Amino acid sequence: MAERKCRVKPGDIFTRLTVIKELPQEKTYQYRWLCECQCGKKKAVIETYLLKGQTKSCGCLLKDTIQKQSKIRWQNRKGKTNE
Ligand SMILES: [Zn+2]
Fold first, then answer.
1. What is the pLDDT along the chain (83 residues), one digit of tens a residue?
2. Cα-to-centroid distance, 52 and ligand 1 (Å)
3. Strands 32-37 and 17-23, sheet pairing
């Protein structure tokens, strides 16, 4: 097997994802890693996506962002908040 530069290793953290272990390659020949999200969900992520920052969570980060944005929008519409 040809050597490759391993740019991701178990224990690495990419935003909300912690790398657990490398997964066997599939037909796509892309390196994939099993990661655990901060929320506890496990997700297989393609190495390139981790390095490019395209995948930062199991999907919960996006949900949180949308929720936060809609909350801000709602507060702006009301003008004042009671918080
Ligand atoms: Zn998550």
1. 556 677 899 999 999 999 999 998 877 678 899 999 999 999 999 999 999 999 999 999 989 999 999 999 988 887 765 55
2. 18
3. antiparallel
Measure 64 CA to ligand 1 centroid, in angstroms: 10
Domain residue limits, the chain? 13-78
For ion ligand 1, residues whose CB falls within 5 Å = 37, 39, 41, 57-58, 60
Q: Please list, residue by residue across 5-31, b when 16 or more beta carbons sit within 10 angstroms of its beta carbon and e when fewer do.
A: eeebeeeeebebbebbeeeeeeeeeeb
Residue 30 tokens read as 């892309």
Whole-angstrom distance, CA of residue 55 vs CA of residue 80: 35
